[in-house]
């Protein structure tokens, strides 16, 4: 049975269009391979689908660049010249931008000022003054933050000191305040929380009243307090 003639026009259905593209692409590459084997030809095919996906066939023992170079030699057409010129232009612009930036940096360091006229010098001066103003404001803000942090730390230390003094005053009024009978030479313990560590104030007592019953207990003083910091 003879095959019906297919009308050559764009396939509207996207799925059918993709299937047809894949089948005919494979058929084309097969024919290119046959030409390479049967006729010792060098064949290069570059294809892009409707989704810009690249498909390429190149004869064995050659490369796409070699095919293009051979094409330029035979046809006397420079394929790379336009691209090379664009690259050179891009390079020139980048070098010019780099030169200007280096000059601006030097001018802000007080160099290369002879190239500037009076108006450019005024503009540079104004720009430097604005920059100096921003830096100074940032410096004052940073100093202000440091001062506030230091004040908070000092306030915390003052509160701790007041609490310690208050505890000592209470112990002076009542000798048995906070007494811990642990049978050792340290007969009292006071605990305080200090900036992530715990401070213990221990009063050393010589236990003289154990040997001398008639010896009166003396009121504790600041000299009787030994403070230890224990890290947690």
Automatic annotation (TrEMBL):
Database matches in Gene3D superfamilies: Transcription factor, MADS-box
GO biological process: floral organ development; positive regulation of transcription by RNA polymerase II
Cited InterPro entries: MADS-box/MEF2_TF, MEF2-like_N, TF_Kbox, TF_MADSbox, TF_MADSbox_sf
Locations listed in the record: Nucleus
GO molecular function ontology, one term from the record: RNA polymerase II transcription regulatory region sequence-specific DNA binding
Domain of life: Eukaryota
Coiled-coil regions listed in the entry: 84-138
Major location category of this protein: nucleus
Pfam families (UniProt xref): K-box, SRF-TF
Cellular compartments per GO CC: nucleus
Keyword field: Coiled coil, DNA-binding, Flowering, Nucleus, Transcription, Transcription regulation
Protein name in UniProt: APETALA3
Organism (species): Brassica carinata (Ethiopian mustard)
């Amino acid at each position: 049975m003879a095959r019906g003639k297919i009308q050559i026009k764009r396939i509207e259905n996207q799925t059918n269009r993709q299937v047809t593209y894949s089948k005919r692409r494979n058929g084309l590459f097969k024919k290119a391979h046959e030409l390479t084997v049967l006729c010792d030809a060098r064949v290069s095919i570059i294809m892009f689908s409707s989704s810009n996906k690249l498909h390429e066939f190149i004869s064995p023992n050659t490369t796409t660049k070699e095919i293009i170079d051979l094409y330029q030699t035979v046809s006397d057409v420079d394929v790379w010249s336009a691209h090379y010129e664009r690259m050179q232009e891009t390079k020139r612009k980048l070098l010019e931008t780099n030169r200007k930036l280096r000059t601006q940096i030097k001018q802000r360091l007080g160099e290369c000022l002879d190239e500037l006229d009076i108006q450019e010098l005024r503009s540079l001066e104004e720009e430097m003054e604005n920059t100096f103003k921003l830096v100074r404001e940032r410096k004052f803000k940073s100093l202000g933050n440091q001062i506030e942090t230091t004040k908070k730390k000092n306030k915390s230390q003052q509160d701790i000191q007041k609490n310690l003094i208050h505890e000592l005053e209470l112990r002076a009024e009542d000798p048995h305040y906070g007494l811990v009978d642990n049978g050792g030479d340290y007969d009292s313990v006071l605990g305080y929380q200090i900036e992530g560590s715990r401070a213990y104030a221990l009063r050393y007592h010589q236990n003289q009243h154990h040997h001398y019953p008639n010896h009166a207990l003396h009121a504790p003083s600041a000299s009787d307090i030994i403070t230890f910091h224990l890290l947690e």
